[in-house]
Amino acid sequence: MAALRDASELLWPAVAETLSQLDLGSEHAAAKKLAQRYAQVIDESKDQTYALRWIGPELLKALDALGATPAAKAQIDKLTKKDGPGDGKPNGLARLRAAHGA
After folding, report:
1. What is d(CA 42, CA 55) in angstroms, rounded to the nearest whole number?
2. First vs last C-alpha separation in the chain
3. Which residue, among 15, 26, 29, has the nearest Cα to 69 in the 3D structure?
4. Smallest Cα–Cα separation from 3: which of 60, 44, 39?
5. 84 torsion bin: left (phi>0), alpha (psi -120 to 50), beta (else)
6. Residue 65: which residues within 8 A CB-CB, separation 6 or more?
7. Fewest CB atoms within 10 A around its CB: which of 46, 61, 65, 67?
8. What sign for the dihedral angle of Cα 53, 59, 92, 22?
9. Inter-helix orientation angle 70-80/56-65, to 10°
10. What angle do CA 5, 39, 14 make, to 5 degrees?
11. Domain-by-domain residue ranges, the chain?
């Protein structure tokens, strides 16, 4: 049985709060569940150092894939932002879509 920890030290509530703020569809269900489970495993681990060392990066990857990290959010913002106000150029996302369709 895992030792009791102060609630402020737990990852699960923070991950749950983060995921609840995202606009995720049913196509995100598996990645969302994976992130939740990683956080739970880390919180329940008897060896926090081991859990954070080996499972922490996997949790971060899952959150990143969902757009739930500052780096992922910055990348999304960069792709959806126009190059300049009213410059007539397609934004980054439009360029990616065009390239993918070609």
Report:
1. 7
2. 55
3. 15
4. 44
5. beta
6. 31, 72
7. 46
8. negative
9. 20
10. 75
11. 1-68, 70-102
Spatial contact of 51 and 60, defined as CB atoms under 8 Å apart? no
Query: Phi/psi zone of residue 96: left (φ > 0), alpha (ψ -120 to 50 degrees), beta?
Result: alpha
User: 30-70: per-residue pLDDT in tens?
Assistant: 999 999 999 999 999 999 899 999 999 999 999 999 998 88
Residue in the structure block whose two tokens are 């049913």: 26
How is residue 27 written in tokens? Answer: 């196509």
pLDDT of residue 46: 92
